[in-house]
Structure formats: C-alpha cells, structure tokens
Amino acid sequence: MAERVKAAQYLKKYNIQDLFDYIQSEVVYNKPPNPREFVAQLLANLIDGKIQFYSDEEINILFKKFEVLDRGWISITQCKVALKDIGINDEIVKEILGQTEDNVSETQFTTLVKTGIQMRINKWKGVSK
C-alpha cells in the first residue's frame, strides 16, 4: 500500500497524468501517420522549448471571451475560470495569482497565461519553477 501512495505522489509531483493527457490530445488532434515518431518529436520540442501553446492573439481572444463589457479588465473569478479552461491546474492557478483580489487587465492576463503555461511545462520537465 505504501508503494502505491509513493507512486501516486511521484506522478502528481511531475504532473505525469497532465503530460499524458496533453500528448494524447495532440496525437488525436493531429492524427500523425507515425504516432510514436510524432510523440518522440513532441517530447523533444517540449524539452527544447520549441512549443508555443498560445499566441498573444489567441490569449487576447480568450481574454475578450470573458471581458464582454469592454471595461479593460476581468474579475479574478473570471481569470481563474479562463486559466483552468486552457489547462492550467488549480495548484498553478493559486500559485500565480497568490493573494490577488483585484481585477485583471489584459496585459496582466497575458502574463498570467504565459507564466501558468511555463509552470505547467516545467512540472513536466521536473523543474521546480
């Protein structure tokens, strides 16, 4: 039983299930003729930092999805939902938002998205930050 708990802790520490979910979604979306080669290249690109998850334009579109009143900001609650919608888990969301209770501007949101994604990738790579 202790080994099972240790294994679960290890998988959680390195966000392995999240990594597998990402790989699987990429394989299904791209339907490569050689999935093994595709996965190997995908992992190499992740390690080398050659994958950009979202462009600034895509982040802007996401922000505007939540910022429908043209105020120039979204609430912290909307920000949390948006971050979770793009695959940034609760643990990372809490860490990057800290004690923030203010509204979030588009510039701040872009920074939060990029930071959250980088933290997600770093967890896959076994890097602490």
Descriptive tags:
two-stranded antiparallel ribbon; mainly alpha; DD_EFCAB10; about 70% helix; Recoverin, domain 1
Major sheet strand order? 1-2
CATH class of the largest domain: Mainly Alpha
Helices and strands: which structural class?
Answer: mainly alpha
CATH topology of the largest domain: Recoverin, domain 1
Task: Summarize the main sheet.
Answer: 2 strands, antiparallel
For this structure, what is the CATH homologous superfamily of the largest domain?
EF-hand
Order of helices and strands: HHHHEHHEH
Structurally, the number of domains stands at 2
Strand content: under 5%
Q: What integer value in Å does the Rg equal?
A: 17 Å
**Termini distance?**
31 Å
Identify the overall geometry. globular
Structure annotation, total helices: 7
Residue-averaged pLDDT: 90
Q: Based on the coordinates given, report the CATH architecture of the largest domain.
A: Orthogonal Bundle
Question: Helical proportion?
Answer: 55-70%
Contiguous low-pLDDT stretches (5 residues minimum) are none
Please report the total strand number as a whole number: 2
